[in-house]
Amino acid sequence: xxxxxxxxxxxxxxxxxxxxxxxxxxxxxxxxxxxxxxxxxxxxxxxxxxxxxxxxxxxxxxxxxxxxxxxxxxxxxxxxxxxxxxxxxxxxxxxxxxxxxxxxxxxxxxxxxxxxxxxxxxxxxxxxxxxxxxxxxxxxxxxxxxxxxxxxxxxxxxxxxxxxxxxxxxxxxxxxxxxxxxxxxxxxxxxxxxxxxxxxxxxxxxxxxxxxxxxxxxxxxxxxxxxxxxxxxxxxxxxxxx
Amino acid sequence: xxxxxxxxxxxxxxxxxxxxxxxxxxxxxxxxxxxxxxxxxxxxxxxxxxxxxxxxxxxxxxxxxxxxxxxxxxxxxxxxxxxxxxxxxxxxxxxxxxxxxxxxxxxxxxxxxxxxxxxxxxxxxxxxxxxxxxxxxxxxxxxxxxxxxxxxxxxxxxxxxxxxxxxxxxxxxxxxxxxxxxxxxxxxxxxxxxxxxxxxxxxxxxxxxxxxxxxxxxxxxxxxxxxxxxxxxxxxxxxxxx
Lengths: 242, 242
Fold this sequence. Notes:
Chain A is mainly β.
């Protein structure tokens, strides 16, 4: 099976925002579904890890977006793994329309954890072996960067509900992104400017928790932190116009 | 073009809940996307109405669900219009898996409104004519029923954010359903019982508004009301185990 593989998507009615263009959170859903599907197809996905009582966990993510396609646009997500290290595997993405217009790139970094201890597991000597599926193609954009400390300009509380959670009753990656981006002034989404999103997933938030959502809004950059019930930072992100 | 038409869907990773089965809100999204697509294909959809500065508005909906399929299940949504009256058109749905197992039915009632006045428009002498696409097949379940007055057992405030709105900055049908169902105790979604949902869409809620969400939880029935900024009821629903 080729190390570089394409997966097909379409911007559906529920994916667009008030500007009639696809939401960032919907693109991130396509990117993460591609990761899951590709790893499963190549026999190092969650299905195979679960037999060892392990699973993949998304640690960091960076997305650069040149434009947001409109409803009904068909697009391809191309994905390949470029690194398979002791603690992290790096998976890359290039998004292009069916007219071959590249409109986004992404880099994700993944850890394997033990489902019981919730602790990281060594990838390099793991029984599942993704290293045979590595493409010698560098990441298309800078890897997820360090995020500055935040001095919040506005905050809100967010109660985790049924709609926010996955099969584990943990908040989904997409929900964190929605909760963060919903802090921005809506006019920001009218912009056509290129943008970059950096995300760190640090801890798991659970059903029923009341999260503290903090946003620091500056010129062309916004920083976000989401804290769980115990006041620990669970999610950090930066949204930047390029 | 046949009056009865099938549209294909699949339960994607983002569609499932903590029980690993499709969320009701995701099925409703498929049902409403089918309605939009089918009406457009048959030349009486929003695309054609917009040329007369009119649009379709969903007024009432009923769904009966026998079971909730799991992730990756492929399913067909069959749709047909059974009534084209002065103020309302009735569109019906039957959902079946690709193994031909019927698992849900739905009935929706739609009005045409003028985009400027937001007032209803007469369907029977409208320049777009859906009456040629009526199938002489009755609705598969009872039409949306009257909903009893609610005596709330619990309430919450809900601030409308960017993620909740459509191209008009109005709250989407799917968001109302999510906001309502998120009021239920989560154990309800573990049940395998058949259920029925009745929904009335009464007014439009807008970006930035703080909604009052009310729920009356009884044995096997829950009633919901969502009120807009002015205290007027915008959404009513009932959720009932059958």
